[in-house]
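Take a minute with the sequence and fold tokens given here and flag any structure token that looks odd. Thanks in advance.
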Amino acid sequence: MSQSGPEIDKDTMPFVAPCRDLKPFAAFSWLRQGVQDLMRAPQLSLSYGFFMALVMASVVWLAWAYGSQWFMLAMLGGFIFIAPLSCIGLYAISAQLERGLEPSMARSLRAAFKRHIGNEMVFAIALLIVFLVWARAAVMISVFFPVGATPEFSDLVPYLTIGTTVGAFFAIVTFSVSAFSLPMIMHRDVDSITAIVTSINAALRNKFAMLVWLTIIMIGLIVGMLTAFVGLIVILPVIGFGAWHGYLEAIDADEFPRHSVGITSMPRGT
């Protein structure tokens, strides 16, 4: 599956793709389109969501059974860094629907783990570095934990305040890096650095709209976990599809070449 087109000199391509100005509550439109994609490919979407929810539940259970509640909370925080990589298969499903293709799990997995594996690995390393710095910061914050065996809530306030602030900072950094970078890697033939810089630039230029989107994602994940991870079977695909539609609305990547093979080698609507 390929689409021939005019040759584009990569040496003349911009370092960052232009971004559009988003409406403050554009994220609700992305959410609605995510639900529509779920309804158009329910079996494949829910299967993908079930697998991701099962992995998350299994890791948390192992952390609780063989570690501690603090280790479990750390693993939950780590999902913030892993989630973007797990969504690329969902981007592939949305891309297939846009091109009038019958969504295929095999085609989605090829897109997720074969077509773009090089750029995905660079992106994963970047997230790993952020995660390691976050983990180190979390260890340093432990010095603020009260020494007493049974501390009262007032004694925990400094620890919780500093921990929440540091955690929120790293979550925002991760979100800015990953919001549009992996969809761009899936959509166009670009390197990871260009995609990451584009994502950060778009997030900074549309702060309120992206804050609304981040809030929706966090509420969705919390609701999913409070339902013993069952809600994540539906919530994760909707968020993944929504992220794809958000990228298409926010980023103008027309100056970058299409992939020579794969789903996105074809224009949308064909």
